[in-house]
Amino acid sequence: MTKISLSNKLTTQTNVLVITTKFINEFNLPDKVNNYIVAELKKEGVTHLTYNYIGKYLSIFIVDTKKEQNALLETLRNHGAKVADGINAAKHTTIYIYNQTKLTNLSLAAAEGIALANYQFIKHKPSQTKKANTLTSIIIANTNINPTDLLHLNTVCHATFKARDLVNEPVNSLNATDLANAFKAMGKEASFKVDVFNKKKITELKMGGILAVNAGSVDEPTFTVMEYKPKNAKNKKPYVLVGKGVVYDTGGLSLKPTLNSMDLMKCDMAGGAAVGCALYAIAKAKLNVHVIALVPATDNRPGFNAFAPGDIITMMDGSTVEMLNSDAEGRMILADALHFAKQYKPELTIDMATLTGAAMAAIGTFGMVGMGTATQQQKDKLHASGFNVHERIAELPFWEEYSDLLKSDIADQKNIGGPLAGAITAGKFLVKFVNYPYYHLDIAGPAFLSAKDSYRGKGGTGYGVRLLFDFFKNL
Ligand code: BES
Ligand code: MN
Ligand code: ZN
């Protein structure tokens, strides 16, 4: 685990990332080296420079002060990802960040980019352990950093790694029970309450959506209830997070085409991982907010009495669903969790789910789509957090007419809405199960990347953890 710490013991002997508007040689670099650097940085279009001096790594980043604040922070995170690669390539263990500007946020953003880019998932490839990243320590050399900010940054990076680990773990080593056990371990470590319902309890509670999706599976479903309630909580009514925990999605009897489309489907519990790990970060950082996280989990397979297109399912709330496509399974399990959440009378419920290919088709992997009945103020805060951490939310319309696409002749709703507006009809299906302010975030696009993208890496990105943590931190 990469650790970010503070120290002012900066010497010429250390690897350093310099953040500056105009490079000042505070590093005893010989005139010749300094002149070279200054000349290079003067060249048209040059915004950063990497230089190896007596075997030490030196990277200089020129801050464009005209840039909007959040865009600027993101350039620092992206540069941090390059620095992490450079440090590891040179087999160094430590990088200092030295900021010659007054903008302390930039040091934190650079550290964040370096730390997140340094993540690896190599536990299943023993031959790779020799190639494990050498970087272990990120040291911010300016001591005017607020210690709480530093603690929050370490915490949220650590929680993001946990989410990535869970997403990257394939279903043969992470089924619904394993996922619930992972949450239990996190609760123990960060002191929050974790209750896991097994199939018997799920059956007693008549969670028909979860049982339907689980019907084709050998493995039992789980329903995890996590609660963090500090004594000094500011909110009277809790916030509830709900995450999709489909540990593997074959599509069920409406089987996904085997060519590639199933390859990434171990990522279908990314929403569950995000909300669980966000709660972990919130508890670790001891934020004074009362938050509950719910994760319904199962795999979606075509075995046994797998639910068949045409089946009518009675959900936990008593309403019926004509299941016309077993690949629209996420909404079936989320619906029961959203109904379950009513007992808490939530201030706001946010769900995160890799719910539709349509969300990914709409905006790609550069953000998530959002919609719902939350108040404008709640939405504004979520969107602001999205910009703060660069996990942006693209708001989709949530007009009444979209619900018409889900009308069924023989049940209360169908579970698919046809070829148009697929991300929205999924949200419209879900909103039928709530009676409180609600916001739905579809993370199908950014949750899992098939090629490396800066500090988000390749594979599970942990998308959503940083957004939620920022939202609750700023409440
Ligand atoms: N898990 C998928 C959505 C998904 C697609 C996640 C790509 C990540 C990447 C979801 O369960 C699904 O299969 N959705 C269907 C819904 C349709 C049948 C209405 C889809 O998007 O095709
Ligand atoms: Mn599916
Ligand atoms: Zn799915």
SSE blueprint and pairings:
Elements: E1 3-6, E2 16-20, H1 31-42, E3 48-53, E4 56-62, H2 69-89, E5 94-99, H3 104-117, E6 137-140, H4 147-168, H5 176-190, E7 193-197, H6 199-204, H7 208-214, E8 222-228, E9 239-243, E10 245-249, H8 270-284, E11 291-300, E12 311-314, E13 320-323, H9 330-341, E14 348-353, H10 357-363, E15 368-372, H11 376-389, E16 393-395, H12 401-404, E17 413-414, H13 422-431, E18 438-442, E19 448-453, E20 457-460, H14 465-473
Parallel strand pairs: 1-6, 2-4, 2-5, 5-6, 9-11, 9-14, 10-11, 13-17, 14-18, 15-16
Antiparallel strand pairs: 3-4, 7-8, 8-11, 12-13, 15-18, 19-20
Helix pairs in contact: 2-3, 3-4, 4-8, 5-8, 7-9, 8-14, 9-13, 11-14
The structure holds ligand BES, manganese (II) ion and zinc ion.
Structure description:
35% of the residues lie in helices and 22% in strands. By secondary structure, it is an alpha/beta fold. It folds into two domains: 3-145, Leucine Aminopeptidase, subunit E, domain 1; 154-473, 3-Layer(aba) Sandwich (Aminopeptidase). Strands 7, 8, 9, 10, 11, 14, 15, 16 and 18 form a nine-stranded mixed β-sheet that branches. A six-stranded mixed β-sheet has the order 1-6-5-2-4-3, sandwiched between helices. Strands 12-13-17 form a three-stranded mixed β-sheet, covered by helices on one side. Helix 8 links the parallel strand 10 and strand 11 (291-300). Helix 7 runs antiparallel to helix 9. The protein is elongated, with a radius of gyration of 24 Å. The protein starts with a strand and ends with a helix. The mean pLDDT is 96. The site of manganese (II) ion has 4 residues, from loops.
